[in-house]
């Protein structure tokens, strides 16, 4: 079995490795300074740059592009030797795959607008025409369910789960518009599931789905954040499901982010992690792991919430922000692709929270190819994705008799520059998001987790980049 799994190496070791890789590997975008902007000097010459953007994921790329187009001198500092952050286009068994964020939709207006802007189309992974659907309960029992029944089950359960979503989130992009949301935010997803009049099969399907969205058990997953995402999906199950898992960007996520960075005219430094941000009245400085100090008039920080605990801030973050950082983001997920020898067709399975493979779907299949399964793991800690036997046993427990030809995984939880997967809110976090959105002096806060709308998604990252770009522009004048 060929494998590729993030190793969870210690931070310093990883940094050394990343830097070596950066030096040795030709990068798609080694420096994004375009000739259009190469002669730009900082508007205020006492700083090295007008703006430093920390992080080269979608939030950072959007902020850099927005500010770069305004003529500011921008530096992007990215810890890894590649762009994209929690989006990572790669190859497995000859196929284009995404280890992280993948699916996009026109109901996700910010990322969709970016695709239109750069003329990028889509490839489809339709959630229809399923030939085999299954659920696995917490006790390991597997049940085949007729595909039509499977889809009716989840639609009905979802609609019951979201029964008050119109009332709670009449304006999804103003999530706190209804004051009742603060009360709702005291509840977990599990609190809501317990109240529903649904069958046992539906409960398994719904809890598996929600475990996936939370990236952890549903007792920790905030109900309000989940309902808000559903509201962004037009308060409608079919529209929401289509937005979730139907369309990928034809060039991969890397294709889009590369275009955005090129457009920014920013200087890009890969393999340059920072560990400190310090500001005074008229200046803000970023300190890299190599103790290089770089100054700017403003900094946009877009690193994942769980990685904040590795950074120093002087002055310290406000106590509200620090409380949020201490709680951290909930989801602890991973992605694994498994190549099966057999062609098992277009399948879908939900596994409940005790099982690692919560969301299993066919990526591609054929008599010669066999089947490639794309599996999203909510709780990566419950299985070692490096353990070939464990992977094989887990997939055989769902599809008895299959033979595994290979697998490839990325565990975002043990990745030092993610320390978690998609940005899911814990109970009580949605109503405190303004605490994280508010700038602090010359420091501006982006990242999908700060978005008003699709905060678990690429769209949220782009939304936050647009917001921080606007905030910095207003601040700098
Ligand atoms: C398995 C998985 C599946 C997903 N599926 C989907 C999906 O289908 N559709 C969808 O829309 N979304 C999906 N998401 C969510 C989506 O990928 C994220 O919400 C989005 O990419 C976050 O973008 P960001 O810019 O906020 O953060 P990131 O992409 O994490 O970018 C932050 C950047 O900061 C860098 N950084 C961290 N620390 C430092 C430091 N000290 N110094 C310098 N740089 C640093 C990181 O390396 C990273 O590049 C998925 C995520 C995962 C993990």
* Low-confidence regions: 1-38
The SS-based structural class is: alpha/beta
Rg for CA atoms: 22 Å
What's the oligomerization state? single chain
The small molecules bound here are: flavin-adenine dinucleotide
CATH superfamily of the domain at 31-86 and 251-328 and 423-476: FAD/NAD(P)-binding domain
Which strand-content bin applies to the residues?
A: 15-25%
How many strands, which pairing sense, and closed or not: the largest β-sheet?
8 strands, mixed
Kindly state the percentage of residues in helix: 25-40%
The count of helical stretches stands at 15
Mind sketching the topology for me?
Elements: H1 11-24, E1 49-54, H2 58-68, E2 74-77, E3 89-92, E4 95-98, E5 103-104, H3 109-117, E6 122-124, E7 132-136, E8 142-145, H4 147-161, H5 165-168, H6 181-184, H7 189-194, H8 200-214, H9 223-232, H10 237-245, E9 247-249, H11 252-264, E10 267-269, E11 274-280, E12 283-288, E13 293-301, E14 312-314, H12 319-327, E15 334-340, E16 347-351, E17 357-366, E18 370-377, H13 388-398, E19 404-411, H14 433-437, E20 443-445, H15 458-476
Parallel strand pairs: 1-2, 1-13, 2-10, 7-16, 11-14, 13-20
Antiparallel strand pairs: 3-4, 5-9, 6-9, 7-8, 11-12, 12-13, 15-18, 15-19, 16-17, 17-18
Helix pairs in contact: 2-11, 2-15, 3-15, 4-8
The site of flavin-adenine dinucleotide has 42 residues, from helix 2, strand 5 and helix 15.
């Amino acid at each position: 079995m060929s494998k590729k799994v993030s190793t969870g190496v210690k931070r310093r070791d990883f940094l050394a490795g990343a830097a070596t890789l950066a030096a040795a590997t030709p990068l798609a975008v080694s420096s994004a300074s375009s000739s259009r902007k190469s002669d730009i000097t900082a508007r205020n010459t006492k700083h090295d740059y007008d703006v430093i953007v920390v992080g080269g994921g979608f939030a950072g790329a959007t902020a850099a592009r927005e500010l770069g187009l305004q003529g500011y001198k921008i530096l992007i500092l990215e810890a890894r030797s590649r762009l994209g952050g929690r989006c990572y286009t790669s190859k497995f068994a000859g196929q284009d795959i995404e280890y992280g964020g993948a699916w996009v939709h026109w109901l996700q207006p910010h990322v969709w607008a970016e695709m239109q802007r750069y003329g990028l189309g889509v490839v489809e992974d339709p959630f229809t025409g399923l030939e085999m659907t299954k659920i696995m309960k917490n006790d390991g029992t597997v049940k085949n369910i007729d595909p039509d029944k499977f889809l009716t089950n989840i639609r009905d359960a979802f609609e019951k789960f979201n029964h008050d979503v119109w009332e709670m989130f009449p304006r999804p992009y103003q999530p706190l518009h209804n004051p009742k949301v603060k009360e709702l935010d005291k509840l977990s997803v599990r609190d809501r599931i317990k109240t529903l009049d649904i069958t046992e099969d539906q409960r398994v399907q719904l809890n598996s789905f929600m475990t996936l969205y939370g990236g952890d058990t549903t007792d920790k997953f905030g109900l309000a954040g989940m309902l808000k995402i559903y509201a962004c999906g037009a308060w409608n199950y079919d529209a929401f499901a289509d937005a979730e898992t139907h369309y990928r960007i034809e060039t991969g996520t890397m294709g889009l982010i590369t275009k955005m960075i090129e457009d920014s005219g920013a200087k890009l430094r890969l393999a340059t992690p920072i560990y400190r941000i310090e500001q005074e009245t008229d200046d803000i400085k970023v300190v890299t792991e190599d103790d290089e100090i770089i100054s700017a008039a403003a900094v946009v920080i877009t690193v994942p919430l769980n990685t904040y605990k590795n950074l120093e801030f002087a002055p310290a973050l406000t106590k509200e922000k620090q409380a949020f950082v201490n709680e951290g983001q909930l989801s602890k997920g991973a992605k694994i692709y498994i190549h099966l020898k057999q062609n098992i067709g277009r399948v879908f399975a939900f596994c409940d929270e005790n099982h690692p493979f919560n969301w299993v779907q066919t990526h591609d299949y054929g008599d010669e190819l066999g089947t490639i399964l794309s599996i999203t793991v909510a709780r990566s800690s419950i299985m070692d994705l490096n353990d070939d036997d464990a992977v094989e046993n887990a997939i055989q427990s769902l599809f008895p008799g299959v033979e595994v030809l290979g697998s490839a995984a990325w565990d975002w939880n043990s990745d030092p520059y993610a320390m978690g997967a998609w940005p899911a809110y814990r109970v009580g976090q949605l109503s405190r998001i303004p605490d994280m959105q508010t700038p602090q002096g010359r420091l501006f806060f982006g990242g999908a987790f700060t978005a008003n709308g699709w905060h678990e998604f690429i769209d949220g990252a782009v939304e936050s980049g647009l917001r921080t770009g606007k905030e910095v522009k207003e601040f700098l004048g």
